[in-house]
Automatic annotation (TrEMBL):
Name of the protein: HK97 gp10 family phage protein
Bias kind Basic and acidic residues: ranges: 89-98
Organism in which the protein naturally occurs: Alcaligenes pakistanensis
Region of interest called Disordered, as start-end residue ranges on this chain: 85-108
Amino acid sequence: MAVRGIKQVKNNMRKLQAEIQGRRTEAAVYAVLSQGGAAAATMTPVDTSTLINSHFVEIKADGDKVTGRNGYSAEYAAAVHSAPGVLKGQDRPDREGKSQGQYWDPNGEPHFLTAGFDQIAADVPRILRNAYRAFDRRS
């Protein structure tokens, strides 16, 4: 007895593998980056909103590898991220008779981007599972 449909099954498996390595994985990586970025945003120091508004997510697919970056493009982002936060909560000097508020804001944290991703680290498997499942429902 001959088995039929093996060629079709192999072709379908190749298509599925390509789809998983492509759009599905990009969507899953984006889900992780967006959740980590959202957690980091709650800890990002805000003064003029330039830093928080410079947030970006970048996903790059290169062959069978998908990588992502999450960051801030403001010129001073790295300096603020690395700042020890020792001035947090202290009043800034008044300028032209007007209060300049406090250094950082009450929710600002040093290493805010790293801390945001640390906060979601345990949830990454669930985020990935949900992202792949959600993609299946859309297809």
